[in-house]
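Appendix B, record 7
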Amino acid sequence: MAKQYAVKCIYGKLDEKAKKSTLVEKVPGSKSITNRALLLATLAKGETVLDGVLFSDDSRHFLECVKDLGVDIDINGRAHRVTIKGCDGVIPKKEASIYVGSAGTAARFLAATLGVSSGTYHMDASEQMRKRPMAPLLKSLSELGCKIKYPADGVEGHFPFTLDANGFAGDSITINIDKSSQFLSALLIAAVLSPRDFTVNVEGSHGMAYIEMTVKMMEQFGVVTKRVTQESFVISANQKYSGKKYVIEPDASAAAYFYAMCPLLGIAVQVPTMHFDSLQGDVEFIRILEKVGCKAVDDAKGIILYPPEDGRIKGIEVDMSACSDQAITLAAIAPFAEEPVTITGIGHIRLQESDRLSAIATELKKMKIKVEEGADYIKIYPGKPKASVVDTYEDHRMAMGFSLIGLRAEGIVIDNPYCCKKTFEQYFSKLDRVVNRLTSN
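Structure tokens (predicted):
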């Protein structure tokens, strides 16, 4: 892919046929479900066949890590299928070096699992991931008896580090999730390895949609989690994950970019097999689009989203803590709304692949859009975006989300578009095809 991508503005250039038809666009499998399924299948007893697997930078790093731990995996990229012979909770290699790249899920999930296993594991990550928070999880692992060593030039609480693991030294732990809910998901999945009933207590706050996904998927693989209180989870002893055939849902985060085209371009959009009963919290983004004026119908083939009847995008104030990956997507729509759009509950996105709150504000201001930025919110005022080169900050969601602005405003260029390979490597190819379909009728 080229170093820059010039988005083709097509707003106002669609004929009546295009406006009255429905854009149907398939998306890859869910990143969040793929990564959870990979670990659950690894820890399971027996064979698991995963269909609909997302192949991206993140999932490839996860797969390589699992292979480096000695687990038997067969990968069929063409069929989007992975077959894993589970290790029944016992990591085959007692010493290994693994590299998680920029994959936050792999980083947190594998660290937790290896930290309560038995062995010595050297873990490293990309420069981007080395800057992201790990300290709360590593603190919990240390309290459970894992010895954590850092290189002489390392930074405590960050990659790289070595885990000298000796199982569980206790039957409970407390984890702070202010910076990431992945810390809690990681410990819940790993807790099944405890020889005793294990309790995970929660401090801090974060959107819990991904925790609900984790708990549901654990149950799908045979392990029940009891939520004793809002802040306490118990995993009873003598449970095991069981291998199975498992179909991964389409990625709701990827689907959101196409659903966002509905109010932006005034067209109906449908993503096949995307339904409101999805395990993924980002499906809530479609409900947010309803608040700006769209109408959603969940039919047998997937959710169809219809544009506002009057063509106007309403301004809203919305807490996006449950689907914060889509804060960038809503921010891309916001300048075209009739009133200001305020997004709250997103302070933690400052600690993701980039400081996303600052990135949103910086790039919109470059387009001469008025923005107010707070510690955990952003308010975006209506305006006409000016031509601009969007800095993506090596952040896949900045690249994909801000490309939407260019569909309705002239002169928007995405710098380093291929950073989207982290989760959706074909995004810009698909965007080209969508643009061509909509303008060739």
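Remarks on this record: Residues 4-28+249-439 form a domain with the UDP-n-acetylglucosamine1-carboxyvinyl-transferase; Chain fold (CATH 3.65.10.10). The two ends are 27 Å apart (CA to CA).
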